Records
---
Amino acid sequence: MHWTTLLPLALAAPSIAVVRFHCSQLVVQRVDPLVEPGSIPSSHVHQIVGGNSFNATMDPKKDMPAESTCTSCQFSEDFSNYWTAVLYFRAQNGSYKRVKQLGNNQFETANGGLTLYYMQDAIYDQAQKSKVTAFQPGFRMFIGNVSARTIDEAARYRQLTYVCMDTWTQRAPETMQFPTRRCKEGIMTSIRFPTCWDGKNLDSPDHMAHMSYPETGTFESGGPCPATHPVRTSQLMYEVVWDTKPFNSLDWPADGSNPFVWAFGDATGYGTHGDYVFGWKGDALQRILDTSCWFNTNCSTESRSKLQSIDAMNKCTQKPVVDEGIDGWLDVLPGGHQAEYGPPA
Ligand SMILES: *[C@@H]1O[C@H](CO)[C@@H](O)[C@H](O)[C@H]1NC(C)=O
Ligand SMILES: *[C@@H]1O[C@H](CO)[C@@H](O)[C@H](O)[C@H]1NC(C)=O
Ligand SMILES: *[C@@H]1O[C@H](CO)[C@@H](O)[C@H](O)[C@H]1NC(C)=O
Ligand SMILES: *[C@@H]1O[C@H](CO)[C@@H](O)[C@H](O)[C@H]1NC(C)=O
């Protein structure tokens, strides 16, 4: 999808809300308060953005806006934490090197991190008329399967994708596995979370059961929520731009396989996943969703006044609590992981 062509048209529509904004890198380290609370270190390296109250325990009762002194997100009232695993390149000699992220399109001066969308309707639907319910304090969710190594295992999470970016604004085609060729501008990974909530539980043991995809179709096609999960929420989506360019000039596998590996060892791409811990101040997210807001460029005056500069976002960082080498050429991925390839096709 090319925003440059979409944007002028979209601005003509009334009361639209697709909230798109960036969050710079808060910290990169082995900590995971959702899946492995209290573990220092957790099993694999993550890149984390958002409020600086982030830590390894994160009691759901924690008042994230009150305990944070800054956020790396553009909306200054968003103290949520958003994270994904980090990506590594595996050289032909078996050494690994971390792939850094880039500020996304329109956020080029941001220090890494990821871009967020909170949508009312499919992003290409310029009407954005549906009313959606914002998440609430204490809400958390996870999507994906770290152990998935085949397309069948990943099929349940069909909206976790890769784009081989030959141009900076390219957003298609999307694949469920890693691209196997050199991508001129980098690799984008997108994580679309489920959009139907059970209306009761802020979390669940697998951090997924309280949420569901629509019963039929998708959020994009306006598919209805199942009776078990009747509350239609905003679609939360992450976009991460991985700067694979520095690796394009190195030797790649002669058999044409992909040289990139998730920090947990997955070299297929099917194990991609995302974590979310809601931490917006008060009803700030609902207010933004209820008023006109196209990306962050044409939000209501009130919503716009809550945006901080990219410089301010870049200044909100945390010192890692896990002191280990995650950069430079490594013999093994932090936590002891090695590249795992799926079963032969
Ligand atoms: C912002 O959107 C409103 C409709 O939601 C439109 O009337 C207005 O012209 C837009 N402003 C700009 C600067 O594009
Ligand atoms: C995390 O922050 C809480 C306060 O919210 C604090 O009580 C706890 O000790 C911190 N845990 C770690 C591991 O830093
Ligand atoms: C492994 O390969 C990379 C990329 O060519 C190179 O920079 C690195 O020095 C090599 N490491 C070893 C231990 O040979
Ligand atoms: C994740 O994938 C593994 C490996 O196939 C499988 O055993 C497990 O049931 C899957 N879990 C979920 C929640 O899909």
Note: The chain has one domain: 18-315.
---
Amino acid sequence: MTNQSGSKRPWAEPFRIKVVEPLKTTNAAYRSQALEEAGFNTFLLRSGDVYIDLLTDSGTSAMSDQQWAAMMTGDEAYAGSENFYQLEEAIRSAYGYRYVVPTHQGRAAEHIISRIMIKEGDIIPGNMYFTTTRLHQELAGGQFIDVIVDEAHDPDSEFPFKGNVDLDKLQGLIDRYGAERIPYVSIATSVNMAGGQPISLANLRELRELTAKYGIPIIHDMTRVAENAYFIKVREEGYRDAAISDIVLEICSLTDGATMSAKKDALVNIGGFLAVNNEEIFEEARNLVVVYEGLHTYGGMAGRDMAALAVGIGESIDEDHIRARVGQVQYLGEQLMKAGIPVVQPIGGHGVFIDAARFLPHLQQDEFPAQTLAAEIYLDSGVRAMERGIVSAGRNKKTGAHNYPRLELLRLTIPRRAYTQAHMDVVAASVNAVFRKRESIGGLRMIFEPRYLRFFQARFERGS
Ligand SMILES: *Cc1c(COP(=O)(O)O)cnc(C)c1O
């Protein structure tokens, strides 16, 4: 791999390893039984039966020595913990938002902001849905409508900013429903469901101009803002020499508030927050957090967890860290592309997304190609991946039919700082082994389906 400055010198992780966790290897017969017991759903596997775990980058990152040291400074006071003030200061200085409400993770912040801002019959436009975000918008009485650019739905398009908002689509919604029915525009940075694709600052600025005309706020899902900032630095004109920290601040300055799952970019195993600039919304959020999470100075987190998060926020926007983090994901993506495996391009920030529809073209979408592929890769090597296709897309609220998303993807998500390049080589070899026998692979049938977020707990069996 060429390093980020373009030279052919080898590249290495910008850290050395101080603590190790042994990995368990298993044989094919063992994995076959484990998979049956898990109903062919990788979410239902026991982690102890997994070799390299690429299910998610959520809460799976390795903390630094500085973060572990901060854990020891935990102030576990019920009220007014010192760590809350450290966290508040870290958020204000790294992101620029004024008011902070800690939550146990991202979806709790989504719940609170949705309850405060959305009323029955509202429309929430956004740059592609995220599962928990959309669910909380719907539970609050709203309807999410996708206004992402068309390129985002095309796995072959190499458009560099597939997270961009199509401003004509948004204008169309404003004309059709009226600005009063749009409580905010929901903008994710490094759009998860599109394959970790960034929004550009130019697009965000135009969006800001358009929404300001109608007095519509922007709420930012900033779960992967650092990865988005990295893509702006390397892809957007005028930012090559800008600091990641400045790009992050600029992104946040174009929005009115944010929900954060700190389990991703911010390098902690648990945590999140809601941050807003509007004082009235803050007061309401501070009130609701007491009902659903805990007092407003801990909101579901232990003091030590807030301390680790305060440090993690700083580390997440470090130049060497973010270059290596995204660089490792690119490395895996390049290995797969070299083997001819169909992946979403450009390679995203937090994972490599395989186009399961093209990997297994003989399967119908309701035979769950991506779910099938996740099962097959686990069987091959014990590597765990995740479905992002028809199972994740759920059912239409009104008709009860499956939603048929245009993207039927298998996600190999890379935890931050947890695995090495050698692990990436092993993963690529396993996907390649499954690819070579793809024609012999049959689909799945769903035999149990939970009502909400079915991908977490649905069960399957072979044969459709
Ligand atoms: C993970 C995630 C969330 C939800 O956060 P949790 O911490 O899992 O509750 C929201 N938005 C995006 C984009 C995410 O990736």
Note: The chain has 16 helices and twelve strands.
---
Amino acid sequence: MANQSFQAFTFQATHLYAENVTASSLAERFGTPLYVYSRAAIEQNWDAFNQHLPAPHRTCYAVKANSNLAILQLLALKGAGFDVVSGGEIARVLKAGGRADSIVFSGVAKSKAEIEYALEVGILQFNVESLAELERISAIAQQRKQQARISLRVNPDVDARTHPYIATGLEANKFGIPMRDALAAFSKANQLPGLQVVGVDCHIGSQLTELTPFLDAMDRMLRLIDELAAQGIDITHLDMGGGLGVQYEDEQPPAVGDYIQAMLAKLADYPQLALYLEPGRAIVANAGILLTRVEYIKASQKKDFVIVDAGMNDMLRPSLYQAYHRVENTVQGKPLITKPVDVVGPVCETGDFLAQGRALAAEEGDVLAVFGAGAYGFAMSSNYNTRVRPAEVMVDGDAAYLIREREELEQLWQHERLADFKC
Ligand SMILES: *Cc1c(COP(=O)(O)O)cnc(C)c1O
């Protein structure tokens, strides 16, 4: 289980290490809150996909999970493809040294400017989510005298059995074209000028811990590909999106190899089809932790509050999805707080918590580690409550690289202007 068994963050004697560096020394050197990533863990997670998905198959890292330039750089050096959801993410990939022709562009609301930019730099393909978008891309490509390679995102209507906010494959979701409209959409795409239809794609949700929904969705997509072939529309690749889950608590998601082999087995009768995957979380979630310092311990009747310097603006997942993240003191051996504790942040919201009802040993000044913070952690951070966002560090063996400086207060209002009131 390559996606779970590698542990970049382990306790040796009483201290938590990130590869060969203690978490407490990182907190001392770079301050808190601090995101810490392991280069080896990211590479290992990437290799697990890549090794099972040789060309012409392709792995496109979903940039939105963690878009730090150094992480994109690391993956670009490994020859990764990229799945992006905005023009901004295309620009990041290029800035980090990624190849334009390795980019697939997903998202329901691509603007004219984003489509023009994508055509200008020459991305691999657009994953198109509606008929209106097809027409828009066709018109822009035609104007530019270019062919846009497109894939149509079809909603296979399978239940991913995950949190409702991250289930995307049901008909009730805003994503993709409903399966029953798919044939008509493809024949329209085939007739529109400026478009080259190459693929079918879907993305049924995130943090999936079972294979069945992926395989059910794939069966439906293959049936569609058969129907398209009967109409003379030849599809050369099938993009099954991302969504493979990771272990945050006691989930047992399938191993990367099992997940990919089960899908490849279905392609036995389709020698012309390349399989594309778009993993985000599975590449970076367990390759990152968030370090946060205890400011106060506040007792109350039923439970105690461990108040830390990281809040929901730094790490939104617990507040937004009631997500579980393991929280540990980076130095073991302190006495356990006798009551269950909530680990809460400084933000003025009751929903501002990182963990609830835990057993934890902690004192004022201690540094805690929030595990599984590499995906949708920094990427979803904000400046709510006029809080600067944390610094990010990548550890590589004994070395630690600062890959994002902590923001400074002045930067938070640099785009604001005092009004020139007349009286
Ligand atoms: C978010 C997203 C992904 C990545 O999902 P993970 O659960 O992080 O693997 C892949 N493809 C699309 C289209 C997405 O929106």
Note: Confidence is low (pLDDT under 50) at residues 1-5.
---
Amino acid sequence: MPIYVASGSDAIMVDVDGNQLIDLGSGIAVAGVGHGAPAITEAVSAQVARFTHTCFMVNPYEGYVAVCERLNALAPGDGPKKSALFNSGAEAVENAVKIARHVTGRQAVVVFDHAYHGRTNLTMALTAKTLPYRDGFGPFAPEVYRLPMSYPYRDPTGMTGEEAATRAIGQMERQVGATRVACMVIEPIQGEGGFVVPAPGFLPRLARWCRDHGALFVADEIQTGLCRTGTWFACEHEGVVPDLLTTAKALAGGFPLSAVTGRSDIMDSVHTGGIGGTYGGNPVACAAALAALRMMDDLDLVGAARQIGELMAGRLAALARNQACIGDVRGRGAMMGIELVRPGTCDPDPDLATQVVRACYEQGVVVLTCGSYGNVIRLLPPLVIEHALLAEGLDVLAECVEHSTRS
Ligand SMILES: *Cc1c(COP(=O)(O)O)cnc(C)c1O
């Protein structure tokens, strides 16, 4: 959309013409602590004045260690954990795969339909959707295998999570072989793929298979992690403890920072210098992350995400009752979407989704589309959004859905 942003405050963005926009997208789940948070500005300014770079592998500094310690404490699982920091989400996923291959001595990586893991060469191979992410950009990395996802709205009626997992595991054992799998990489709730929440039991069954067969279970929590779904990490909703966990987006209040967090025995298996990078864990980004993580604690953004979720779920369910074009309402906490279809069918209606999003922009509300079929409207408001403002944004969305279906 041709809207150039000049400034922002909490859940409001102001464009270069002075228009105020309600941001229900957070720059794709990044601005969890809101735009222009003073705590981030202060932490970053102070760090910029001290030093902006050393390369952690050359001369370490405390901010990097502090971010890792915080992530280790937050990540599910009781045992000792370690973290390594990088710049982007894709880089974190790539490194998780490198670590998994190194520690298992195996090569195969298993991913799922509708998955999104990034745009670098390896992560393009892990990502499911051809357009716009892969088309013309091959050849892709080998030893990547794709399995059917649990997608309750589109799976056979009544299919349980266990059954969907059995379907996926059967295909994997036939295609890949149980002893060749280094890791399974999965988003506990799919982001770009359409806010797909797998049926209960799916993730625990897959994690158990990994444990039983010496493969690593890698949770890509780049979009779902850090309070977004009403828990610190989305895999906690089903008590799943991943071997490795990737974070990025909301980690550093808008600064580029990502992490791999995992069991110490796994993280320590890689030789010194085997993973790293010039800018990974940049000191300014670490200062921003420490401020963002402190805000998540101090403002109880886990609780805030739950309250936002209740408000959105109620409003979207009411809208769906009146609008036959809404096939499904789903998500968790402050990560909810509506899947738009042709009334009376499950046929995706991406044109309607595009129309609704454009209409929302014209009314000053930022929402995003996603989904393998481009027909899901997703809501990812900043977790600091005031409820009255959120309700105002949802009113606009409702009006735009009603108006777009009528026209
Ligand atoms: C955004 C995203 C990525 C890629 O992150 P980048 O910082 O854009 O490289 C990977 N996985 C998931 C689940 C994401 O949402």
Note: The mean pLDDT is 98.
